[in-house]
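FAQ: What does the model actually see?

It sees only this:
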Amino acid sequence: MGSMETTAAELEQKLKVSEEKNKEEVPSSGQAADEDSGDEDEVDAAPAGATGAAKKKKKKKKPKKKTKTGATAQSNPPRVPIDQLFPNGSFPVGEECDYRDENLKRKTDEEKRHLDRMNNDFLTEYRKGSEIHRQVRQWAQKTVKPGMTLTQIAEGIEDSVRALVGHDGLTEGDSLLGGMGFPCGLSINNCAAHYSPNAGNKMVLHQEDVMKVDFGVHVNGRIVDSAFTMTFDPVYDNLLAAVKDATNTGIREAGIDVRMCDIGAAIQEVMESYEVEIGGQTHQVKPIRNLNGHNINQFQIHGGKSVPIVKGGDQTKMEEGETFAIETFGSTGKGYVRDDLETSHYAKNLDAPNVSLRLSSAKNILNIIQKNFGTLPFCRRYLDRLGQDKYLLGLNNLVASGIVEAYPPLCDIKGSYTAQFEHTILLRPTVKEVISRGDDY
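And it is asked to produce this:
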């Protein structure tokens, strides 16, 4: 193949044409900055003298709404499973508090740090349950209003917990994997605890009511127990402030090797420093002396140790690795509760006696309880939900036989008002973690 010679003039002309072409094709630095700015609706202007139509930039898809953890936002009402919001399985850590005095060195002790790292599964289950509790209760705080029935409120909370944990509890054994740690308590005014509506309950929440909302979330039997009080009249603000302060005092005092009597004395001192004026009468806020916090074991809401909220002589100590529900109750009444009203809460005893049951209905309902709740507390609505009916005679027989424990509502004198706040804490080897702490309380 032969070659073609090019003159110097022709070569210079070709180079000029090539440079002008390159200038048209390369965007200016201003245009490049616009493209990188991320403005969704901006359109590039056509350059002067352009022969082709200017093309609009493609709109970038708006990112999905994020929570502060970077996950997709929860629905209203809460129905998005928590595992979808935290696909990496890493859930928010609770409030970590250093131990006091000689226990402060635990935070840097390498052996304790190693023990702490071995608790990953345990901590993940508790943190998952706590995040579910936070999301559901914060929805309830925004949604619950006077005029709603207690049944609507309880079922709204319980259905949300089941949806978020990913177990609806309708198939045999599903409730044992995760769900409600115990029934949603909605105790009004002088009733302090353990009230949940049974089927047919028509009770309505009123503007002047003081309602304790106490519910638990469990993941593999790791129960997060946390409660708060709702009011709609500022007249009760000091009552709520007293109890919240007392609960936070109990949390602050709690720790490894701390005696129960010391915690109770600190709680009582703070609680009784508050007064509340209701209806022209001034009341000192009294701790309800026969209600306590408690330790929590796997699948066992009351583990055997009590955390008093008044001073006393209990020398029992908290120990490393234990989980506690620190809860306090304040009252404008006598500061003492008794069984009252219709029972809704039940639980199979951990050490239930081996009794020969004669009633077929008792045998049937015990089988249902064992397969669906084990030793987790349940209520009559949960049995209704599983399609059980005409079970009350058999259930009462189980209570009389000592196999199942009944937990009636606990009430102070009529006309009084009671409030409650509660958190679950983990006594980890290195720090104390208030696992259920949130922005709300």
